[in-house]
Known about the structure:
Blueprint: H1 5-12, E1 14-17, E2 25-28, H2 30-34, H3 36-50, E3 57-61, H4 64-75, E4 79-85, E5 93-100, E6 103-110, E7 119-127, H5 131-142, E8 146-155, H6 161-167, E9 172-177
Parallel strand pairs: 3-4, 3-7, 7-8, 8-9
Antiparallel strand pairs: 1-2, 4-6, 5-6
Subunit structure: Homodimer.
Domain Phosphoribosyltransferase: 36-155
GO molecular function: adenine binding; adenine phosphoribosyltransferase activity; AMP binding
Amino acid sequence: MHIDPAVYVRSAIRSVPDWPKPGITFRDITPVLQDPRSFRVLIDLFVYRYMRQRLDLVAGIDARGFILGSVLAYELNLGFVPVRKKGKLPFQTVAEEYSLEYGNATVEMHTDSVRPGQRVLLIDDLIATGGTMVAASKLLQRLGANVIEAAAIIDLPYLGGSQALKDTGLPIYTVCSFDEGAA
């Protein structure tokens, strides 16, 4: 019996109701990472998608994007650059502020993270409202990078993030999606 790899990965994602607050269902990728088979299937999905594309770097968003991005960069024989939360990088940085549900946040990168014209894959674990990923993409573009695609394990389309990314002209790829309240 053949199981679709994306369905296999989705089945390993844990749904935690009412966390971090009532009415929110948190999509926890920890079980995917803990299980060697599901982690390998996940990484292989990304590797197969990007192995024949001309890329220079993988940029991972703080913090779960670091896990996926660094492993993917290694598998594709590419460099990895972190997109960090404000105040975490020791060298000269460039910053991009974005809106959250209750206020603003900022992501930063070192000014020498990318060179103009480099082709970059941007990766994180989840697309919710899209704010962090849009800000990270803008940051990479300000440094001269060509962001080829934004990738994530999970899309929560009812929160509008994937549409917000598409509206900027950035192609996206996600392994699976969850509708509001879906198990």
